[in-house]
Amino acid sequence: MKNRFTGWMVAQAAMAALFIGTAVPSAAQDDFDGRQVAAALTKKDYKPAPRLADGHPDLGNAKGSWVPPGVGDMAGTGGGFAGSAKPEKKVDVAFLPWAKAAYEERNANVTKDDPEAFCLPPGIPRMYATSFPFQIYQMPNRILFVFEGGAHMWRVVYTDGRKHTPPDKLNPTYLGEGIGHWEGDTLVVDVTGLNDRSWIDAAGHPHTEQLHVTERFTRVNEQILHYEATIDDPGAYAKPWTTSWSILFHAGMEPYEYICQENNADLKHLVGK
Questions:
Q1: DSSP code of 251?
Q2: What share of the chain is helix, strand, coil (3-state, %, to 5)?
Q3: I want to staple 65 with a disulfide (CB 3.0 to 4.6 A). Which of 5, 38, 133, 192 is the partner?
């Protein structure tokens, strides 16, 4: 069986290879540079998105897996070292001073302190910018996301009409509390209750526990899932900012078992610039 390593570590190895002139192969399914999904977007002969009996688009349901491109910098400005795929548009992020300083320090240090490198969950929206397969299962009252990478996580998004837990009763987590609803063919997920222990992306965009993310999932045809995330964190940014990209479907693909240990002994070799 072919192994898939953490996206972060493969990207770091690839970056090192640039300096020593050695190519680093990756698994065929991984799309760290976004070339696979970019090629898919040029094709015009895809069938429409399949639908379930309730009329909603079928977002997968064990028929295959989605493999995101490695969007290392969600603002598209070239920061970070894990995944070189670009978002659809470059974003002028309105940093607060401390957030800008943190972002610049992380890039100066070759993002050696990236929490994902320590096998911690990537958080939201980064789970969908890490190039490892995930599956989506739709149920009457919730939608389940099962991720191969990012520490072999699962995520539950409730679609039963419930409200968010009051802030004073929330226990902040890496993936937060996702409440979803449909707007036409788009699944809209409102996410609060995120802790501040993750980075928004591999480039090191920071956030606080005030982070509020609005996600939009749209299966535009049988092969393409469009993902959009609006990042609203008044603790880190002067105004919200929105990023987006497309994710490619691989029919019949099943996630592999994934093991990642928190004690990553190789990080000490990343000494920065």
A1: E
A2: 20, 25, 55
A3: 133
